Structure formats: structure tokens, C-alpha cells
Amino acid sequence: MLTPVVLAGGVGSRLWPLSREFYPKQFIPLVDEDLTMLQLALTRLRGLDALAAPIVVCNEAHRFLVAEQLRQLNINDASIILEPEARNTAPAVALAAYQALTKDEDATLLVLAADHLIGSVESFHSAVAVGRQCAENGQLVTFGVPPERPETGYGYIRCEKSTASHQLIQEFVEKPDAVTAEKYVASGDYYWNSGMFMFRARVLLEELQQWAPNIQAVCEEAFRTLRKDLDFYRIAAESFAPCPSESLDYALMEKTKNAVMVALQSDWNDMGSWSALWDVSDKDDAQNAVQGDVILEAVNHSYVRAESRLVAVQGVDNLVVVETADAVLIADKSCAQDVKKLITSLKQQKRSELQEHTQVYRPWGSYESIVSAPRFQAKRIVVNPGATLSLQLHHHRAEHWVVVKGCGRITRGDEVFHLNEDESTYIPIGMKHRLENPGVIPLEIIEIQTGSYLGEDDIIRFDDCYGRVE
User: Fold this and answer.
1) What is d(CA 302, CA 333) in angstroms, rounded to the nearest whole number?
2) Cα-trace Rg, the chain
3) Distance CA 195, CA 155 (A)
4) Which tens digits make up the pLDDT trace of 148-187?
5) What pLDDT sits at residue 10?
6) Which of 151, 201, 306, 391 could be 107's S-S partner, Cβ–Cβ 3.0 to 4.6 Å?
7) How would you classify the pairing of strands 365-373 and 359-362?
8) Which candidate, 59, 20, 21, 26, places its Cα nearest to that of 41?
9) What is the distance between the alpha carbons of residues 216 and 240, in angstroms, rounded to a whole number?
């Protein structure tokens, strides 16, 4: 069986302010109004033969986002592996290989990134079919993309020229400067490194044992600590902590003598920058790509995105303008790869805008900050049908709830009662409480918090259906 492994652990910092640590690009509908990048990666698999349930590797903070987006696709049999710490792609793939072997002793892995865009599904399936033959013959397969232009944001693969369906790899090359990239494209010997792979799970682990034994040994030991928790598979943090952080390219593919490349003849993009998103977006006659409430006048070759309000731009060219509820990015499109420098400044200043949007997603729904000031703040809370918040209390804040849509079941101390639209209740400091949505439509409330400390960490949970009680 062919087991898809989708790596979904990145933070997509170069697409800030839309992509943030707790809600990164792979969980956002960047190029499709209805499907996120993760969902596109999974739906792209439909039609492949002998396909097993997917394995998704992600981090703790994103686990409920992954579970919900799989549920929306009616994928109920996936394995969601939670990495205790980010350790790059080699350890993530090794853990997935051990998991695949528990279901299929002869599993073949198709390793994909959750944030890639592939233009032609048919071409993708054709490349997978070729790669599958190579993998079944014991080879380690990577997929290379014929370069459309000199690109400094991608790594490259140099191959022996061949008319065969696959080519022997001569070397992997890191991201080049502009002059070197032009030479690579002109030579015809280089391909963009897509970061997608295919191999038999057992072959991968054997090769890692030879070329990266420190990674293989730690992952083997860590996998023995695997335990099921709701929809997730957890690895003990202490057993995984000694694992080196290395990409699969560096740890294995650059060293093995058993690697081949299959060409992926399709529009491909790793969606790693705003200029990359401009490349794949529909454009007007002035080569502008726009989304949201945008008005342009004398603007050319620009990407403008409005998330929460009107954005008007006049008399500029080659810009990226991205507006969210709490941050705005304006950058020269040619410098889009340098957004990481801004991220460094945000980290140094410990800005919350690096981590979360004003709307924060939780397994039960979401909350959105409306206004915040010393000693009070207001939030809009949306609880999904049938969902339940934890039974909890706060030591430093009181809460006043007003239902604006739907019906809520409230636990308030020893009381349990229902609140309908335009009704309210008050939760004093230190009182146990719980909010539930017993209805079939989303429950929306306005929550007014007052107190000396209003941080999200002022919460003691006593019961929680999402496993968040210590």
C-alpha cells in the first residue's frame, strides 16, 4: 500500500502577517476559497491506486487544526503524530515510517509538504506512478521540478542527463545567489528540489541506520513511547529531545548511493513568499493580484490583500500590501524573501502579533478580541454545534456573558441552566463554570472580562473533553 505522509509542522514566517506561529500558512485557504493548503495536499491524492490512510506529522499547537481540517474532508482514519519539538524533516519522516509499518509491513511512503501547490494533478499522479516503481525496487526517490526561471528561494538537484523515466542524482545544491541560479537554469542539468520523496519505509530506516544512525536510533527509541490520545499519537518529549535537527536531504539523500530523481512536469510552488503567491494568483490587466476589499489606482505588478477592512493603494508598482486586523505589511515584491528579517525584530520585541491573530482558534470553536484595555477586555466567542468548553475557573478575572446567537448551556457553580439570545449571566472570580452549545447552529456570545490580570494562562481546568487537563 502507498501511505501518504504529510509534513505539516512549519510556521510559514515569510507569509507574515497572514501566517503566524499558532495559525500558519498550511491551515489557511491561500489559493482556494474553500480548501486550505493542507486540504489541497490531501485531496490531490484522490485517484491514486492502493492508497492507505494518511499520516500527518505536526506539532502540539496545531493538533486541533489538523484534526478539524481532516474531519471536514471526511478523513477519519488518519494517524496524526505530534512532534514534541520541531526537529526538521528527517526525524519527522522516520517517525512516520515506524507508524506506517504498524499498519503495513511493506508500506511505501509518499512524503509531501502540507504547503505546496501543484498545478496539474494528472502530472503529479504520473510522477508518483514512476516514483512508485523505483521505490518498489528499493530506491530512494525525490521529485525534481524543471526550473521555469532563475530562483534563489529554492534548492536545486543536479542530475545525469538521461532519457529514462528517472535520473541518477549527482548532487544537491543549497539555495544559490541570482548569478548562480541563472547558470543552473541555462545548463539544463538542474532541477528545483521539491522536497517530496518516495521510498519503502523499511528501506528508509535501513538507510538512516547507515547514514544517520543518531537520528534513526533516537526515533526508534522514541517511537516505543508512542501513545494514543484522542485523535493523536504522542511521543514522549524526553525520549525525542536528544534527536538532531536535520533535513532528510542533508541527513540521507545527499549521502546515499541509492537515490534517484523523478521529474515532476507540472506547475509547482512551495508558497514560501508573497512573491510566490503573486506568481500563482489571478491577475488583472495591470498584473495586480488582489483579494478582499481593495481599490487600486495607477498600481502595477503588485499583490494586495485585505482581510478586515478597505485597503486603497495609489501610484505604486511591485509592492506587497497585506492587511490583517492587527498588522499591515508593506514590502517591495522583489524583497519578499526578506520578511524573515522582520520576524527577527518581532521576536526581539516579543510581539504577540508574531504568534496569534485577533481571532484565535480552539478545538471547540474560536474567540476574537474586540477591545482590550487595563482591567477589562471584550471578546466574541463562537462555539461550534455540540462543542463544550472545559470546566474551569479563573483566579484574577470575572466574566459577563451575553448570548447574541443560538442557545448555550451554562454551568455556574452548582447551577446548570440555558441562555437564549439577548440573555446574560455573570461569572464571579474563582467560580467554576462551563459553556456548551447543545444546538445545531453556532453559539455566539460576547464576553466581558474584568480583573487585575486577563491573560489566557489564568485558567484552571477540572474537566476537558479535549485532553487539556494536567
Assistant:
1) 7
2) 24
3) 9
4) 888 888 899 998 877 678 888 888 988 899 899 999 999 9
5) 86
6) 201
7) antiparallel
8) 26
9) 11
Residue 166, SS3 per DSSP: coil
CA distance 381 to 418: 17
* CA 406 to the chain's CA centroid: 31
Report the DSSP beta bridge partners of residue 305: 291, 322
CB-based contacts of 102, cutoff 8 Å, min separation 6: none
Domain assignments of the chain as residue spans, ordered by start: 2-269, 274-347, 359-463
Asked whether 208 and 252 are in contact (CB, 8 A), the reply is yes
Q: What's the CA gap between 171 and 94, in Å, rounded? A: 23
At 93, is the secondary structure helix, strand, or coil? helix
Query: What does the DSSP 8-state code read for residue 165?
Result: S
pLDDT tens per residue, range 102-113: 999 999 999 999
Q: Where is 409: in which H helix or E strand?
A: strand 408-412
User: SS3 for 393?
Assistant: strand
Do the domains at 2-269 and 359-463 have one common CATH topology?
A: no
Fold that domain 2-269 belongs to in CATH: Spore Coat Polysaccharide Biosynthesis Protein SpsA; Chain A (3.90.550)
Class for domain 359-463, per CATH?
mainly beta
In 3-state terms, the chain is what percent helix, strand and coil (to 5)?
25, 35, 40
Query: What is the Cα–Cα distance from 247 to 7, expressed in whole angstroms?
Result: 12
As given in the structure block, the three cell numbers for residue 287 are: 498584473
- Cβ proximity of 3 and 78 under 8 Å: no
- Length of the chain in terms of residues written: 470
Residue 211 half-sphere exposure toward CB, CA atoms < 13 A: 21
d(CA 470, CA 460): 9
Give, in degrees to the nearest 5, the angle at Cα 280 between 276 and 285. Answer: 110
DSSP string of 100-140?
Answer: HHHH-TT-EEEEEETT-EES-HHHHHHHHHHHHHHHHTT-E
For 29-50, the DSSP string reads: -SS-SS--HHHHHHHTTTT-SS
pLDDT beyond 70 at 231: yes
How far the first Cα of the chain sits from its last, in Å, is 38
